[in-house]
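pls design
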């Protein structure tokens, strides 16, 4: 860099003998004086003074000064700095005034710009330009000849003869060049004219004059020896001369194919720079192209908007405006097609010289040209890419069954030594021209090229997989060209299949990124000119067509419509599936139909559908995050439930789709502490994995047979949980789900997160709005249920547990690093102890490995190890319910049921009856196949029964052998019981119903084995307070598990309390039956003492449950009801507590401020409690009191029967009065009845048809009364103020009355319910025969409304006491008043026609 010091004149003069050094110093002076700064004027004067001194003292530096002035002016003019220009003018002016040197001035006039010379005073700009032209003419064009007529003609003749002659193949190229130079020198020929003649000879040699432009573009001229000699000769001339000649010809001659072909021929050999010819052409290519494309885009946008628009007006003004725009657009396109430079560029592209042309225009202009002229520029670029792809295809793609074509290329010709980026190299070779053709849509006519690209890329990925080394250019090519181009091939599954052959090798994360940008977007993005118009149009048409098809889609035509849907989805899967999922979110009854409609969708469409599902789960269209809860803030939104159901059904129907992205999304949500999508995982495991039987939620609804069946193995669980109904699931889907969850430890990771999420949901310290307790309980129970299903699924016989075990952390890591509780840590035992492997039944007890044994004291509380041993802890943690309990009755019952089904089907088969099974699911099965299935089920049940019985006996034998070492102390039964509860049974019982049953059976097995150190009564004495205290701090699911635990325990205690013989058999002669007395000594428990202890437990449990029901907290009441419902039949056994419960339950039902689910549960439990009371389950109830209660109930039932009879008689009288008042006598009524009665039916009818359909709308309470959900008797006995409407006279046609059951008997059987819902019709005390069409089938409702729902006529309420008189009832408005007396059936028909 130049320094800031100004060189002196002496230094410059001293270096005058050295030209280079002198010019460097002079240049420093000029730079110092012209540098743009604050003191530029002062510096300019100093520099001018130095140069003035130098010029005054030495005239030999004239050439150096001219060179420095020229260089400085060139630099300053390029920058365009005004201040520096002024400084330069001032310095030159000072130097020019020193001496009168015309030669110096002339050199300055030749080298300096005219503007500077004019300011210096060396002439005007016009004069200088004129002199410059004269000078250039003398230098370049003036002939220095004496005899033009003789010498020039001879020279040019010989030159033309030589150029047109056929070259000798033995003649070297240098000889031709030397000969032309000799002719120029000998005859002093003008070089420019020689170049012009050579150009003309080249034009004639190319032989393009007889071709049109399209023919000239189709094939490049073949280079002959004569053309090679002409090219060598032209290369001898300066390039600027040739460039000037081309500019002159373009500006003066007509743009013929000969001229354009010659220019393209020379430009292809780098002899002409086409970029330098812009000024020679009349129009600006860039501006015209951009303007034309804007018109093209505007027209395309209007066409897309009009696809779904229905115009009812004439639109004359609009049509005129559109016509004007179209005319202007056509004119612009015509001008572009005639543009010479575009013709030359197009010719070069056709000849394979795209690399020489692409830099002449910006990429956006190239894209505009392809969009405006797809048949010219678009096809040219596609043809160029076709030529480039041929060697790649020959090297990688082989045709099966055919001999590979011979090719001189190999893979090494295109890739480096390390073949890690083969695909990237391939994409770089073809992506540049193809990406420019996207907006043109010309790929629609090059389907072969598109298929070749996909096949080559797929072959490269198969041979050289590079899952993590895709360059940005490769991803951009897939995103911006390969995927959008599929829309150009509508209804073409082959193209979509070719594309999927490439995409299936990419990771799902990359594929989903590509899908995310594979949409032209909605109408708001129409201002983006880079979007292809054809893509917008294709999406609009697909959206319109798929909506049309979905409107007509149904179960009946799903096969035909699915073909049409698949045709649309082949080219626009995002649009199609986005619309379909919107329909699914709104209408969940479309799930099965929508899934079935995907049968003809190709693999690419299925993968896109999974992405669309994931996109719908994450956010709604527009990026708005939707609420996953309903307005109550507790229940899951309808759209989320519908999507979960659709996902499970879709994966079951099409198990080949990849769901890794969906599982990773769930994993990410769990990491964030969000569990609202657990329903998705539950659905995938139940429907796709075939583990619906493992879902016990809600645990409170499990029946006794289901609980007993869960103690068996998988076949028994499947039969009992589904009540013998066959579960439809895909074995292939289950296998793929196993494989997916075993990959990279995804299943174990989800288990760990599910175990952690319970505490995160409960103790949420994020500072957000407080969550509803019901919601917290629901989320915790859901996570526990899903965790149990996932654990059973991963450890099932069909699963591959090796993959899961490899990714399983150690127990110490689980407990310390993942902060899991002891109960949550136990669930990982199944991976290590082999539980669930039904084939390894060698009789050996499963045990935890030595490494895990070291962590036992970490898992259990430290005080417990003083009373229980590690052997007890290991055995308890290593086994499950099916290891220590054999459900003999469940196996026998299911085997018997299945055998009966087999016999029934065989008997029907012998009778030749063809029956379709499961017709409601549309799955018709013959009897033969059903028999085979049932026989296989029976065989598996018998096999599992024998194997489990053997296994349980082996485990119990091993337990019996180790039981002597289970407890450390034998003198502290109470502390031992507390340690067992705290470390083992109680925390595990909270996990699931299976664990609750296991904990209960484990304790009684210890009792049965008379385990030393274990006291059964001390254990039970500690268990009851532990359970009752925890009811105020548990969720509904945990309460249900505790209820099962308590129910299984209380059954045994109840049997011991009221069956002294069983007590003596189970307790006598057992060391574990002892207990500590008040004096601290161990005693043997007697039956009387046990009764006292039982009464204490009964009181503790009863007081706790009463407190739960009376609590203002929802969770307390809910937990109490769950426990009471489970214990119904064994608790309560005392009438005092039972009556208290009935009173509190009635209060809950009548309190409108209580939640609806609490009121419904209270009513249901009240009915159950009354039934158990009537069945004698209240064992301690006094016999006299029970007899008096029954007598009172019978009296009340008879009274209600009489009142009901009076009501019916009153209704008959009122009906007769109404008929008389309207003028309808019995004859007219008979005529109406005869018209509606079937042939052969009796004319006498007890009532008109219209009487059955009158009455006010039924209320929810009436429905609950009729369905048995509300304890109507209990409420009536307590004097409930609720009133019920009278029964319908026509509702007497019920199966209960048909078998002759009296009202009193029926009321007694229903728990003293008032028979308001089903009353017997009376007409003179006789029942009428309803034969023919009027006879209702068994189990059918009294009548059905137009929507197919069963309904009954409203009834007047019965009097609550004897004070309710007929006069008070008559004040109530009649339901028949003000009604039309015409038959209601005809009236409904008239309304329908209206």
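designed seq:
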């Amino acid at each position: 860099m130049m320094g800031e010091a100004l060189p002196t004149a002496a230094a410059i003069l001293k270096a005058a003998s050295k030209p280079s050094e002198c010019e460097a110093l002079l240049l420093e002076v000029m730079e110092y004086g012209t540098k743009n700064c604050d003191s530029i004027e002062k510096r300019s004067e100093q520099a001018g003074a130095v140069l003035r001194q130098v010029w005054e003292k030495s005239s030999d530096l004239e050439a150096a000064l001219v060179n420095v002035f020229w260089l400085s002016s060139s630099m300053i003019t390029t920058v365009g700095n005004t201040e520096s220009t002024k400084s330069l003018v001032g310095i030159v002016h000072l130097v020019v005034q020193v001496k009168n040197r015309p030669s110096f001035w002339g050199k300055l006039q030749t080298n300096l710009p005219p503007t500077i010379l004019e300011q210096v005073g060396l002439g005007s700009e016009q004069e200088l330009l004129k002199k410059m032209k004269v000078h250039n003419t003398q230098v370049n064009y003036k002939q220095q000849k004496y005899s033009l007529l003789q010498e020039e003609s001879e020279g040019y003749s010989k030159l033309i003869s030589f150029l047109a002659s056929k070259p000798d193949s033995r003649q070297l190229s240098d000889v031709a060049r030397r000969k032309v130079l000799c002719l120029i020198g000998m005859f002093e020929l003008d070089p420019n004219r020689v170049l012009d003649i050579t150009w003309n000879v080249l034009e004639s040699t190319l032989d393009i004059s007889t071709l049109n432009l399209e023919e000239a573009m189709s094939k490049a001229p073949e280079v002959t020896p004569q053309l090679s000699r002409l090219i060598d000769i032209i290369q001898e001339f300066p390039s600027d001369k040739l460039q000037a000649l081309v500019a002159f010809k373009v500006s003066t001659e007509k743009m013929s194919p000969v001229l354009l072909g010659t220019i393209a021929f020379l430009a292809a050999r780098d002899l002409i720079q086409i970029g330098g010819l812009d000024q020679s052409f009349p129009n600006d290519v860039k501006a015209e192209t951009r303007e034309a494309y804007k018109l093209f885009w505007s027209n395309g946008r209007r066409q897309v908007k009009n696809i779904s628009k229905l115009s009812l007006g004439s639109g004359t003004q609009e049509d005129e405006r559109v016509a004007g725009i179209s005319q202007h657009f056509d004119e612009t396109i015509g001008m572009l097609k005639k543009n010479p430079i575009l013709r030359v560029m197009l010719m070069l592209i056709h000849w394979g010289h795209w690399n020489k042309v692409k830099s002449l225009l910006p990429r956006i202009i190239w894209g505009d040209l392809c969009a405006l002229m797809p048949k010219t520029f678009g096809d040219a670029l596609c043809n160029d890419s076709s030529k480039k792809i041929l060697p790649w295809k020959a090297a990688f793609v082989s045709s099966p069954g055919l001999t590979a074509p011979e090719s001189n290329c190999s893979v090494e010709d295109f890739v480096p030594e390390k073949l890690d980026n083969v695909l990237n190299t391939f994409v770089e070779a073809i992506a540049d021209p193809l990406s420019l053709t996207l907006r043109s849509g010309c790929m629609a006519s090059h389907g072969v090229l598109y298929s070749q690209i996909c096949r080559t890329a797929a072959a490269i990925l198969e041979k050289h997989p590079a899952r993590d080394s895709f360059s940005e250019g490769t991803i951009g090519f897939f995103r911006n060209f390969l995927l959008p181009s599929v829309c150009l091939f509508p209804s073409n599954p082959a193209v979509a299949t070719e594309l999927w052959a490439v995409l299936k090798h990419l990771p799902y994360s990359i594929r989903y990124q590509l899908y995310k940008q594979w949409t032209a977007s909605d109408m708001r993005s129409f201002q983006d000119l880079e979007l292809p118009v054809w893509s917008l149009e294709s999406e609009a048409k697909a959206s319109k067509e798929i909506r049309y098809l979905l409107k007509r889609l149904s179960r009946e035509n799903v096969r035909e419509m699915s073909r049409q849907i698949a045709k649309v989805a082949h080219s626009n899967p995002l649009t199609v599936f986005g619309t379909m999922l919107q329909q699914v979110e709104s209408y969940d009854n479309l799930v099965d139909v929508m899934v079935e409609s995907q049968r003809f969708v190709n693999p690419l469409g299925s993968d896109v559908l999974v992405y669309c599902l994931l996109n719908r789960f994450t956010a709604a269209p527009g990026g708005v995050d939707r609420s996953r809860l309903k307005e109550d803030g507790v229940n899951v939104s309808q759209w989320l439930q519908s999507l979960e159901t659709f996902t499970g059904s879709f994966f079951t129907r099409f198990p080949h789709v990849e769901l890794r992205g969906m599982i990773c999304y769930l994993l990410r949500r769990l990491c964030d502490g969000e569990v609202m999508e657990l329903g998705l995982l539950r659905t995938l495991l139940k429907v796709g994995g075939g583990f619906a039987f493992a879902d016990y939620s809600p645990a409170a609804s499990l029946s006794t047979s289901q609980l007993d069946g869960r103690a068996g193995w998988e076949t028994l669980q499947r039969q009992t949980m589904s009540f013998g109904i066959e579960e439809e699931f895909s074995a292939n889907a289950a296998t793929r789900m196993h494989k997916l969850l075993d990959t990279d430890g995804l299943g174990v990771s989800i288990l760990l997160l599910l175990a952690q999420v319970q505490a995160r949901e409960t103790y949420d310290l994020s500072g957000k709005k407080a969550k509803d307790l019901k919601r917290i309980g629901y989320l915790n129970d859901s996570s526990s249920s899903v965790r149990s299903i996932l654990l059973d699924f991963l450890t099932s016989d069909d699963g591959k547990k090796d993959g899961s075990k490899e990714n399983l952390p150690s127990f110490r890591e689980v407990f310390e690093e993942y902060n899991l509780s002891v109960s949550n840590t136990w669930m990982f035992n199944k991976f290590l102890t082999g539980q669930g492997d039904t084939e390894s039944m060698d009789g050996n007890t499963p045990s935890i490995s030595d490494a895990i044994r070291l962590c036992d004291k970490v898992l259990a509380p430290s005080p417990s190890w003083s009373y229980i041993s590690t052997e007890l802890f290991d055995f308890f943690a290593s086994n499950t319910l099916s290891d220590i309990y054999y459900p003999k009755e469940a196996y026998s019952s299911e085997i018997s049921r299945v055998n009966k089904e087999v016999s029934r089907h065989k008997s029907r088969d012998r009778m030749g009856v063809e029956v379709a099974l499961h017709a409601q699911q549309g799955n018709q099965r013959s009897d033969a196949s059903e028999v085979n299935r049932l026989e296989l089920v029976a065989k598996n049940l018998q096999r599992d029964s024998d194997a489990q019985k053997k296994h349980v006996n082996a485990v119990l034998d091993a337990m019996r052998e180790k039981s002597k070492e289970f407890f450390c102390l034998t003198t502290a039964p109470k502390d031992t019981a507390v340690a067992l509860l705290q470390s083992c049974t109680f925390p595990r019982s909270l996990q699931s119903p299976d664990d609750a049953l296991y904990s209960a059976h484990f304790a009684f097995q210890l009792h049965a084995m008379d385990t030393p150190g274990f006291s059964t009564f001390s254990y039970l004495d500690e268990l009851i307070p532990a359970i009752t205290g925890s009811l105020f701090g548990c969720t509904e699911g945990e309460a249900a598990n505790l209820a099962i635990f308590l129910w299984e325990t209380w059954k045994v205690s109840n049997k011991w309390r009221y069956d002294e013989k069983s007590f003596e058999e189970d307790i006598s002669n057992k060391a574990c039956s002892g207990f500590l007395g008040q004096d601290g000594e161990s005693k043997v428990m007697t039956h009387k003492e046990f009764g006292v202890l039982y009464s204490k437990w009964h009181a503790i449990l009863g007081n706790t449950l009463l407190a739960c029901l009376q609590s203002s907290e929802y969770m307390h009441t809910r937990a109490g009801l769950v426990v009471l419902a489970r214990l119904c039949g064994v608790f309560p056994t005392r009438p005092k507590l039972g009556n208290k419960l009935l009173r509190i339950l009635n209060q809950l039902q009548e309190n409108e401020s209580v939640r609806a689910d609490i009121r419904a549960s209270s009513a249901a439990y009240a009915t159950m409690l009354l039934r158990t009371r009537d069945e004698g389950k209240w064992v301690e109830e006094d016999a006299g009191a029970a007899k008096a209660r029954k007598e009172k109930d019978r009296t009340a039932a008879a009274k209600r029967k009489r009142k009901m009879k009076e009501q019916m008689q009153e209704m008959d009288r009122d009906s007769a009065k109404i008929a008389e008042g309207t003028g309808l006598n019995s004859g007219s009524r008979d005529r109406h009845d005869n018209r509606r009665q079937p042939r052969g039916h009796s004319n006498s009818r007890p009532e008109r048809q219209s009487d059955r359909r009158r009455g006010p709308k039924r209320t929810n309470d009436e429905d609950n009364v009729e369905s048995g959900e509300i304890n109507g008797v209990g409420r009536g006995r307590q004097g409930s103020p609720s009133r019920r409407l009278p029964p319908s006279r026509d509702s007497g046609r019920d199966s209960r009355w048909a078998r002759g059951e009296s009202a009193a008997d029926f009321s007694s059987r229903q728990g003293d319910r008032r028979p308001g819902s089903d009353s017997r019709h009376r007409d003179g005390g006789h029942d009428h025969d309803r034969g023919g069409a009027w006879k209702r089938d068994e189990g059918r409702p009294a009548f059905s409304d137009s929507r197919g729902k069963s309904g009954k006529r409203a009834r007047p309420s019965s009097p609550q006491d004897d004070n309710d008189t007929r006069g008070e009832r008559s004040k109530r408005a009649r339901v028949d008043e003000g009604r039309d007396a015409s038959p209601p059936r005809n009236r409904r028909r008239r309304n329908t026609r209206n």
